[in-house]
Design a protein that fits this description.
four-stranded mixed β-sheet, about 60% helix, alpha+beta, globular, about 220 residues, Glutathione S-transferase Yfyf (Class Pi), Chain A, domain 2, Glutaredoxin
Length: about 220
């Protein structure tokens, strides 16, 4: 019996972009269903009753929730000789990759939320400072490597690169240049887009993301 794979997502979500990239890396065929965050479908509420949020991967009727867990599930479930594993085989390196993915979610994304959903002023400036500091930490971890995973695109790259397409919105809202502050990160982001078809096809245009963020700020009454 062929695998039945359904992917519930909202297009601008960087977490959903992770799943898109992983599915593309493993050449998994799936049915895509766009979700409204304001009017969640019965299927989403049924498949993720705890958090009630995207992304959700449904594999043969069984749901997997939370983007990093979904990516790991995809990596373990679909073996593809053409694509190396996303997570390292060495236990220590695997633990380190998970550490940095967790850092991205708890630190980088948190400061991005502070920029996006805070009114202009002291709170947003604090988030801006934290955002740049955290990007510099990521740049230091990248070092002179082509990818966070070394010569090959891997779990940390996949976890982080969806936020690359959000950088323009961050820069516009708080008047900062990520390229000036972290040039190696921008080079890495461009490399991912140019060298990895899975990334290029999974990341929306930065201007579309900015427009989405602008509309969300208006809806939330931030501006």
């Amino acid at each position: 019996m062929a695998d039945e794979v359904v992917f519930l997502n909202a297009g601008a979500s960087p977490f959903g972009m992770r799943v898109r990239i992983a599915l593309a890396e493993k050449s998994v065929e799936y049915q895509y269903r766009e979700e409204s965050l304001q009017d969640k479908s019965p299927l989403l509420l049924q498949m993720n009753p705890i958090h009630k949020k995207i992304p959700v991967l449904i594999h043969n009727g069984k749901p997997i929730c939370e983007s990093l867990l979904i990516v790991q599930y995809i990596d373990e479930t679909w073996k593809d000789d053409k694509a190396p594993p996303l997570l390292p085989s060495d236990p220590y390196q695997r633990a380190q990759a998970r550490f940095w993915a967790d850092y991205i979610d708890k630190k980088v994304f948190s400061s991005m939320r502070g920029i996006l959903w805070s009114p202009k002023g002291e709170e947003q400036e604090k988030a801006k400072k934290e955002f740049i500091e955290e990007l510099k930490v990521m740049e230091e971890e990248l070092g002179d490597k082509a990818y966070f995973g070394g010569d090959n695109f891997g779990f940390v790259d996949l976890s982080f690169v969806p936020f690359y397409t959000w950088f323009y919105a961050m820069e516009t809202f708080v008047n900062v240049s990520v390229e000036a502050e972290c040039p190696k990160l921008i080079e890495w982001g461009k490399r991912c887009m140019e060298k990895k078809e899975s990334v290029a096809k999974s990341l929306p245009d930065s201007l579309k993301i900015y427009d989405f963020a602008l509309q969300m700020r208006k809806k939330l009454g931030v501006d």
